[in-house]
Amino acid sequence: MSVRHGFPPIGIDAIALGVPRRFVELSELAEARGVAPSKYLTGLGTRRMAIAAPEEDPITLAANAARRLFLRSGASPADIGLCVVGTETAVDHSKPAASFLHGLLGLPSACRVFEAKHACFGGTAGLLNAVDWIASGSARGRAALVVCSDVARYALGSAGEPTQGAGAVALLVRERPRLLALEVGQTGSYARDVYDFWRPLHHKEALVDGHFSVQCYLDALAGAYGEWRRQDGDGEPLARTCYHVPYGKMARKAHRHRRMIDGLTEQAADESFAVEVEPSLDLPARIGNIYTGSLYLALASLLSAQARDLEGKRIGLFSYGSGSCAEFFAGRVVPEAGALVAALEIDAPLAECHHTPVAEYEALRRNDEAADRRPAPEDAERGGASLDRRAVYLGLDSSERRVYANA
Ligand code: CAA
């Protein structure tokens, strides 16, 4: 329930995914690393990780998710007055991902565009900013496009390797949303300066203090949830909760932690997991960690599985960004959301993905740096907006500008 009485609801109107064309089976990665497959499949709760090829990067994934959002939802780029891209794997230290998107999608010139960075929290920063932009009246009837896009990379052979992934989630945010009405003005925030996960400017692969990062996530959840509960008082219980999902087991640990804060025993907290959380973990298990988009991939998974049953129900959302900042907030699934979710065919892009052997994935990673330096063909056509064709990265021109095309 929105806490802004007398105003139209604001929230997520449509959702779409962009995924790379390749994935690695984690049972095969475990064998290649000499690890028991059950460690990755059960211990971490992961199944596959999506892998980006040289022509795929956070910009192409974002553009392809957004393009699909427009095609499936009936919205038009002309409706957009704010475009935010949340990413922690930006392609340029200055030029924002949102500017590339502006060109590739043909967004209006009367549009605010920017990139939001705060580890995995950047997408939520974008979403909550978009909600405030609408609530303030600045939108003047226009919608916001919020895209969370990342390519998650850890070193080959590291403990983090099986928790990689790549992909984008595009969200259309507007008044009178057709999927999820957010409770505007009621969020629990938590921040703490910690070094749990970081990526120095010259690194392509993230560095992480893995076990410490798990504890930081749980501490942030307790802080943000406690703050949200203080505002919610005796509010209606949450039918489902979506968490940031770096790997499935983390959501399981988070849920136990949160429900024990509610006063449940450990056993009762674990028993509630199957109903309250499990339906949100299918897409994350098939794609892996997509950093900024992971919470919204969990939401997409939940809605794909149960939107019709959840119409009118209240669901919780927990976002965590290392470094750190976290937010707990809630929303209500809109009546008729089930029919829209069926029309959106959220998981359809996964049907175009194909299995990649571990040796091919390793070769792609070893060529990563070369892929970054590859020159764009002389006759490459820069930019050009299109909703009908897939965005691809062609390479750098002689001034080190990235060249994209809708191919
Ligand atoms: N069969 C079944 N389970 C097994 C097993 C086997 N053969 N072997 C081990 N396990 C279990 C372990 O018991 C453990 O379970 P619990 O967590 O329930 O105790 C689980 O598998 C993992 O085992 P380890 O702790 O030994 O794993 P690890 O030390 O190799 O690495 C990790 C785990 C630290 C999470 C590592 O994958 C990592 O660093 N990942 C990246 C960081 C990350 O995702 N952090 C999450 C919080 S930060 C965040 O959320 C932001 C973000 O997106 C990065």
What does this structure look like?
The protein has 407 residues and is α+β, with helices and mostly antiparallel strands. The protein has a single domain, classed as Peroxisomal Thiolase, Chain A, domain 1. The chain has 14 helices and 17 strands. The protein has helices spanning 26-33, 37-43, 58-73, 97-105, 122-135, 210-232, 248-261, 266-271, 273-276, 282-287, 294-310, 337-344, 358-366, 368-373; strands at residues 10-18, 22-25, 48-51, 80-86, 112-116, 143-152, 165-175, 180-182, 188-191, 197-198, 207-208, 240-243, 314-321, 325-333, 354-355, 391-396, 402-406. Strands 1, 4, 5, 6, 7, 8, 9, 12, 13 and 14 form a ten-stranded mixed β-sheet that branches. Helix 6 packs across helix 7. It is globular. Residues 36, 38-39, 42-44, 120, 159-160, 163, 196-197, 208, 210-211, 213-214, 217, 244, 246-247, 249-250, 289, 291, 320, 322 line the site of acetoacetyl-coenzyme A.
List the topology elements.
Elements lengths: L9 E9 L3 E4 H8 L3 H7 L4 E4 L6 H16 L6 E7 L10 H9 L6 E5 L5 H14 L7 E10 L12 E11 L4 E3 L5 E4 L5 E2 L8 E2 L1 H23 L7 E4 L4 H14 L4 H6 L1 H4 L5 H6 L6 H17 L3 E8 L3 E9 L3 H8 L9 E2 L2 H9 L1 H6 L17 E6 L5 E5 L1
Parallel strand pairs: 2-15, 4-5, 4-6, 12-13
Antiparallel strand pairs: 1-7, 1-8, 2-3, 6-7, 8-14, 9-14, 10-11, 13-14, 16-17
Helix pairs in contact: 1-2, 3-4, 6-7, 11-12
The protein binds acetoacetyl-coenzyme A.
Acetoacetyl-coenzyme A binds next to helix 2, helix 6 and helix 7.
